[in-house]
């Protein structure tokens, strides 16, 4: 009976932290009126216009988009009546501000001074593709190092590469692929406090490799 060729299957992982180049701020304006939908929207629109005027041309600002508008009726609980009672109208204008990462603290003050708020900040790279390429290569190097160590452990020379794949795509593995992660630590959703200091962007990659064993 012919024995299948001996192989070693390994996983290589790598990560790298990068100082962010830019940030995207989720901003919003909320205004209310006790009795008029139109008045609530007019107030929110006025504050949004002031915000845009303050941001246009500000140092480090790359793009301002204020395009999400909503108006809804407000309700409050009346314990005496045991029911919800109408409490007026609330209008919201929301959008994003893209800016240089280092400009965020000053822009946060500008947003607050205009009467608006910041819901979250995401930190990003101008060239994430270059960062992904570098970390992929590092993951491949890590896989080969692991394969070499395993081959040495059994006293066999490491042979040629038989297969290289993203996680879950190897012919020897079942299951769906895993995505490469590009993650900014400290971005929105990480906790109750909003950190406006630039946070490193962590790029991670994982590969699966199969090498032949010689000898």
TrEMBL record:
Gene Ontology biological-process entries: DNA damage response
Source domain of life: Bacteria
Protein name: Uncharacterized protein YggE
Family matches, as InterPro entries: 26kDa_periplasmic_antigen, SIMPL/DUF541
Annotated Pfam families: SIMPL
């Amino acid at each position: 009976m012919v024995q299948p060729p001996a192989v070693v299957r390994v996983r290589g992982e790598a990560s790298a932290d990068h100082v962010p180049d830019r940030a995207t701020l989720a901003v919003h304006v909320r205004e209310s009126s006790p009795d008029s939908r139109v008045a609530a929207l007019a107030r929110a629109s006025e504050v949004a216009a002031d915000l845009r005027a303050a941001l246009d041309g500000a140092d480090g600002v790359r793009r301002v988009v204020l395009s999400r508008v909503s108006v809804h009726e407000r309700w409050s609980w009346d314990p005496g009546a045991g029911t919800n009672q109408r409490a007026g109208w609330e209008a919201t204008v929301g959008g994003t501000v893209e800016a240089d990462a280092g400009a965020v603290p000053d822009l946060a003050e500008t947003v607050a001074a205009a009467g608006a708020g910041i819901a979250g900040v995401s930190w990003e790279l101008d060239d994430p593709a270059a960062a992904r390429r570098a970390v992929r290569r590092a993951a491949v190097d890590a896989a080969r190092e692991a394969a070499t160590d395993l081959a040495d452990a059994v006293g066999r020379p490491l042979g040629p590469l038989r297969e290289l794949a993203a996680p879950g795509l190897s012919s020897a593995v079942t299951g769906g692929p895993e995505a490469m992660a590009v993650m900014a630590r400290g971005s929105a959703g990480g906790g109750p406090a909003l950190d406006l200091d630039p946070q490193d962007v962590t790029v991670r990659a994982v590969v699966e490799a199969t090498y032949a064993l010689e000898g």
